[in-house]
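Give me structure tokens for this 263-residue protein.
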Amino acid sequence: MNEKIALAFPELRWGGFRTLFWKEVLRFWKVSAQTIVAPMLTALLYLLIFGHVLDKLRIYGSIPYTAFLIPGLAMMSILQNAFANSSSSLIQSKITGNLVFILLPPISTLEFFFAYVLAAALRGVIVGASVFLATSFFAWPGLAAPFWVFAFAIAGGAIMGVLGLIAGIWAEKFDQLATFQNFLVMPLTMLSGVFYSIHSLPPFWQKISHFNPVFYMIDGFRYGFFGISDVDPWISLAVAVLGLCLVSALALIMIARGYKLRY
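Here you go.
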């Protein structure tokens, strides 16, 4: 298996990637009460508040609002926590000055990229799965198409992991990182259909929602549970893959050039 990876990616040395990836996993796992349990409790609070108030509401004609909300909360948790993992790791390393210990070893651009992004996606998926298991006791949303659930969970976690990598490279202090998160990541996720179907919006805002790339990830992920969505899941998957390719290309260029990493 290692030989096949080496042939596919000559620049990728398995040992360096494995070490950096494991370091990133241990970093969030050792404080799991903060990185996993806390987001799960936040999602539960959203469910208890909105589900209690709007429980009589039916989405797509027959789906109880509480069941409709659960996949959205799970996907939102995946996205936000994947972004938080890679971005916080990099900014902490830069501020404390220990980033040099990652840059000095012969770790390639691809190793650096894959280690941070896969660790971020893993944290996002773990948190999302925890949120789903905790909230499914209140209402079971079903599982109409598991492939779509898996595909969008991985794609969404990877995209936000790459965005977190870009933000962590760009930011020089926590204030700048907070700006990136508060003015880009948070609005995109909160206004992506997590708490509503876009068909409940006026026509103008329905059209605006289609320009939000996160909407396609939420909608495609939700399709995996109900078999119903606002947009064809193949279109949503195409948007997610295209978005992943674009942000990955930008991140790889930034890493290869040492942008704000090597002074």
